[in-house]
Design goal:
Layout: H1 7-30, H2 34-53
């Protein structure tokens, strides 16, 4: 026969685990130094400019000239 499980305690334990997982994600996302955030911002800006420069049609130009 299986083990008896208290559903209330199981739900609370699941909620604690989920809360800890979310906290870990937030620490990874927001727990960075100013230099790290700036580096990531510059990297994403550089990638966006690269992609914009290699578009076949410019944005806002309907006939592509």
């Amino acid at each position: 026969m299986g083990e008896v499980v208290n559903l209330r305690q199981a739900r609370k334990q699941k909620a604690r685990i989920e809360k800890e997982r979310l906290a870990g994600e937030n620490r990874a996302l927001h727990g960075r130094s100013k230099a790290e955030r700036e580096r990531d911002r510059l990297s994403s800006d550089r990638a966006e400019k690269f992609m914009d420069g290699h578009r076949r049609e410019k944005l806002g130009d309907p006939d592509g000239r």
